[in-house]
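for the writeup, i need someone to sanity check this before i put it in the appendix. the sequnce is what the collaborator sent (i think, or maybe the updated version? ugh). structure was predicted straight from it, no edits. if anything looks off just tell me and ill rerun, i have time this weekend
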Amino acid sequence: MFFHEGSDSFLEEEVEYKKAKYVIIPVPLDITTTYVNGTKFGPASIIEASRSLENYDYEFDFDVKDLIFTINQLQLPLDAKKAIEAIKQTVSDVVNDGKIPIMIGGEHLGSYASSLAFGDDVSFVIFDAHGDFKKSISGVELTHASTTRLISSSKKTAIVGLRSFSRSDMQDIKSMGIPVVPVKELSKGFSNAMKKIRNKKVYISVDMDVFDPSIAPGVGTPQPGGITYNDFVNALKTIASNFDIVGMDVMETRRTESRATEVLAAKIIIDFVAAREKNNE
């Protein structure tokens, strides 16, 4: 595999691959973006932003030092199908090595690629402002706006933070029985939605546009009225205490002047590792 150690690593962690428990997979995917492009620069910017943060996680009272390894940024073909296969193979390699993959990107279509590396005993909890249930865009079926439809074709899914969708998309989501937690129902509806997930194993997929643009402006398709950082931390606590989390991705991040989105993306990755470790102590 294309592993490295050194200055381009998340949190500047110098950890041997064989000793690491979590593996950052930078995925600069930016093929089907339909509004603001630039997500291919997201992975490098998140890694850079992580160096402004501490290893100790205050929210979970846990130090993530010596747990995270970062592989080289993937060199992806411009053909979506070939890019999906390359991402799937990399995630599969990490999983087969007994490690927890954390993919950073990159347009949300990468999450579908990651889902192909897991069996149907894994459910996907998808944090996203959008339904991402389009059958196609201009005749193209593999797009960032089709991600949740593609994942749910073979995996049990739940959508959290939803606030932008078409009526036909929502009809399809409801007809498939997919649990949905709109932003306005997050505080009271999240636990109920999680009870509908029967699989013990879950994968968390975060499209950064689930957050309000006031704290995460650097995304491909921002939407007003998003969740807060505390909303996410509370949801993460619920998931970590009730499920075995087998992987995570943080997608749709663009490089911004303020770096606010990238810092937030890096922080929720640290939170994920801390939450998972804390609940497995």
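The CA atoms of residues 20 and 67 lie 5 Å apart. Helices lie at 42-50, 80-96, 109-115, 147-152, 167-175, 186-195, 229-242, 260-279.
thx in advance!!
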